[in-house]
Design goal:
This protein is α+β, with helices and mostly antiparallel strands. The protein folds into two domains: 30 residues; 105 residues, Sandwich (Immunoglobulin-like). The strands form two sheets. A four-stranded antiparallel β-sheet has the order 4-3-6-7. β6 and β7 form a beta hairpin. The termini are far apart. The mean pLDDT is 87.
Length: 144
């Protein structure tokens, strides 16, 4: 059976309309999470965070991360011992999984971060501390 041009146009138009309605239904059923709830307010401090990151990158020896069984170890210069640090774990694809942790940097310049309870996958890790009245922050993409 051969279709004339009128039927062909009607079939193409119907297929396009159904595809459009399908995309609309798809987009309304998926949640859209920003990386963090205060995304816009956080973006205003970008310049200050860049200055802090540059200051941290200039530390000698450099800040390093090492993985151990169930623990993430942050190695800082020994001069930064005995200060408190704040650790933020951000999950780029699920803001509800974000978590914060606070701890103290040990006498040898290490900060041991327990990783229990965190799902496997990609995390953005931000560690912030203050030494001698100066702010420092270290950011790292982590695959746990």
């Amino acid at each position: 059976m051969k279709l004339n041009w009128g039927w062909r146009i009607a079939i193409v138009y119907t297929a396009f309309a159904l595809a459009t309605l399908g995309m609309v239904a798809f987009t309304f059923t998926h949640s859209i999470d920003l990386v963090r709830p205060d995304y816009y307010e956080h973006s205003l401090g970008h310049d200050q965070r860049a200055i802090i990151a540059a200051r941290t990158a200039a530390l000698k020896p450099l800040v390093r991360l090492e993985k151990e069984a169930g623990v993430l170890v942050l190695l800082l210069p020994a001069s930064h011992a005995h200060v408190s640090a704040s650790v933020r774990f951000e999950r780029p694809n699920a803001a509800a999984m974000d978590t914060e942790w606070a701890g103290a940097i040990g006498a040898d310049g290490t900060l041991r971060i327990p990783m229990e309870g965190l799902q496997e996958g990609r995390w953005r890790l931000t560690i912030s501390w203050k030494h001698a009245g100066v702010d420092y922050a270290y950011e790292h993409a982590l695959y746990w």
